[in-house]
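Q&A log
Question type: sequence-to-structure
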Amino acid sequence: MKVGIFFGGPAREREVSFAGGRTALANLDKGLFEPVLVFVDGRGRFRQVSPEFLQAPSLRDVIPQDASGFSVYDESLDSDALASSYPEIRPERFSAHFDIAFLAMHGPDCEDGAIQGLLEWYKMPYTGPGLVGSAIGINKILQNELIALANGQQKKTATINRDAWERADKAQFFQSLIDHLGLPIVVKAPHQGSSIGVAIVREPDLALFCRSVEQCFFTMSVQPDGFSKLSEWGELSADEKRELAQTMVSLDSGISFPVVIEQTGEVIRHPQTLIDKLDSMQGQPLTLASVNAEDDVLFEEFISGQEFSCGVIQDDDGRAIALPPTEIYNVTSFDFESKYKLNTTKKRIPVATSLENNRKIQLAVAEVFTKLGINVYARIDGFLTPDERVLLHDPNTIPGMSPSSLIFKQMAEIGLNLTNSLTYLIRQSLRERIRTGKNTFHLKRLLTDLDTQLANRKMNPLPERVVSFGPSDEGFAEAKQEYNRLAASGEVRPSLVYLKSKVENYEIPVNLLFKETVEELEAALSQPRHPLLIETTEQARHITERYV
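Response status: OK
Response body:
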């Protein structure tokens, strides 16, 4: 079966997606699937690329750059800048290149039902939740309302749209939010993922509050009472202007290009053009907005408690099974920087609470997954409060796909390695696409062919290959990398063996592959498994036995 791995896209999370494409390519079972790489550029066009494309450190490093000295994404370049290097694939020709689209994209257009709808129109099956679950999963305002209907949870929220914000008395509005939500206040852009467009206002600081709201609308004001660095434009040196314009390119912290000058409607695609324009306007008041700016901002009360993230998978009957929840701790807010850039954030499976509370989290997550019409898999975040309430938010319908992503760690706890997990996603997605009643015979044939291959593997197991390592962190890391490479080859069945001494060795189970050091590994080997992990493994055995 040919698998088109879709990565990139026009959303702000495309760098996360770039890393996810690399993970999918490296870990897809080559004995079952033939990968075809599809880079979705910033203008939404589909381009076939080679594996070497994914070896760059980041997406901007592989995109051809112009002579300006700025590092930009392709929306800032000429519209045909990528055409000669990366040929375009038209959607009506998808089926000539691959049999299923593996979606490793995130954010608006990528997991909100847009790409899913396009693929359904062209009768191309895809991985992950369908149209309904995707549309709900991207809209934080709607999520809050539907989760409350699904399980009755109580969480204080408020919203404001851009027009109302521009008319509002900012100080009065801020005070009304403090009266309603208290401090701190969580400010969110409602259609972003990976915690992009999230700010926490902890003090009664009006300027900080206004900057946070502008950040979540993806706007910047250039005027005497503006709240961004751009308000100081006339006082900046040439180098400071270049640095600020380059910062605006950033997808996780800047408003990103293209931007529009709202007073004139002029669209600016390149940071150098922006510098020239601002210099020419000589400090005239103006507002810059991303062409993909939000029209609403969501405000939520700050929840104190244990923060967790819990994946959900499905069986063939559509029954949701929650994976063991992961607790995120040693972090003030699980935002983009703490998720992807800091090493201080700690995680543990399951949550450090009672067995009953962990079960309560799983039940709540599985219920919301089902009632919100999500299928195949998802990750749902939330808090366990000091009074033992479970408050859920932000269903993520295409979780991040780095090798160490939470969803893969949780799937390892039930016995699925990275390669097995990707095979599950493809197979279960085929099963769910069949339920839509579109192109049913073809999809059933794909599913039958895959099931036949998996059954043959069970009857005629691949030869075992032992990967051993000694008591060093470097050796452990290299052995895990080799294990994953062999698992994805489709030629052997790897096992990982820890040679602690000449007389003492241990075969490492899949659930311990994500330990980072030998010290952590030895501690885990010396302790009994948590009852929740044993329990969840048994609940999911009828799913995992197909792949292991």
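Response note: The chain has a mean pLDDT of 93.
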